[in-house]
Amino acid sequence: MNVPERLPVELGERSYDILVGEGLLALAGRHIAEVAGRRKVMIVTDETLAELHLASLQRSLESEGIAFEAFVVPAGEATKSFSHLEKLCERLLQAGVERKTPLIALGGGVVGDLTGFASAILLRGTPFIQIPTTLLAQVDSSVGGKTGINTAQGKNLVGSFHQPRLVLADTEVLTSLSRRELLAGYAEAVKYGLIDDPAFFTWLEGHGRRLIAGDPAARSHAILTSCASKARIVAADEREGGVRALLNLGHTFGHALEAECRYDGDLLHGEAVAIGMVLAFELSAQLGLCPAEDADRVRRHLAAVGLPTSFERLAQRSWTPEVLLEHMRKDKKVADGRMTLVLARGIGQAFLTQEVREEDILQLLAEEISQTAVIQS
Ligand code: NAD
Predict the structure, then answer these.
(1) How far apart are the CA of 248 and the centre of ligand 1, in A?
(2) What is the CATH number assigned to the segment(s) 5-176?
(3) Catalytic: 40?
(4) Taking a C-beta distance cutoff of 8 angstroms, is the pair 75, 110 a contact?
């Protein structure tokens, strides 16, 4: 394989590197030994990855003389729950996890968030290594140290900040990912362009289809650009006191849609974020903050690559604007009872605001719902 690209995340004594490259999984053992020595590791993965890619990781650990044990959890969002967290922690404790035992998350955002949280709380913190296997996890969730689980009240409401010691993003593992999952991850890459990198958004407009079709160079470029952007934002605000909240562009709307779908697979997280970003730009345009042309560009590009940009696919659900707003009110970013939204002054010009009136949000949601009804009739 080519030499992997190395991107530092500068967080003082919690600094770490993100490595991005093709075929990196086969060399994981060597890179893990660099940061964690050759002590025994515990791998957490899901059923899908256990079949597809676990053996490759195990071979690379064996070749470095690193002992391991693997723990397989069910695939899917429902695994990010108290009950699965409890089971996983008990299995790891029974297997003799020690304070210095590295926990390795081999999987998408679900495995990463669950394993990271277990690693944060087991023995008050064990070393944690991320090997993200979805595009979403490679461009976003594996970097930055947010870990956690969902509850009946909403997404990611229980969790902690726990930075990994290393992130290994192998672009080759993405070849086994379904197109739908790939697109969901693509939405998070688009997010970085929309937050503060208009040149990256323009690049995605020109090269996004190549990336989706499997071009390794385009994939590497998008992963590196997204991670560099996230690393910069996280280094400036590790625990989301301010600017890091920009990474939630599209998420307040998106989480409301996900909550209403009850994480039943009808709407993937990245798909919800795609619709959420369209709504955030639409609202910005309606409030006169952002040119309508920019909001159109966002919707056009996401639709052109095949992401959902409206409620069309969810039309059989009888939503009301009030129900969705109620979910938005439960968002983690609510402060002193006021909702914080990420809006935009244009592509690459996202900002945080607590000034949006609820009636404006209700009106936007009502319009989206009624347009869906028109499409359906
Ligand atoms: P996921 O982990 O559920 O993976 C999606 C599906 O793809 C699963 O069925 C999985 O088994 C399968 N899969 C994974 N890698 C594969 C591969 N290489 N080949 C074939 N199949 C593969 O979902 P996701 O989209 O990776 O992550 C979504 C989660 O990430 C959400 O829970 C979201 O809240 C979280 N997230 C966290 C952060 C953060 O900062 N911690 C940021 C964004 C999203």
Answers:
(1) 17
(2) 3.40.50.1970
(3) no
(4) yes
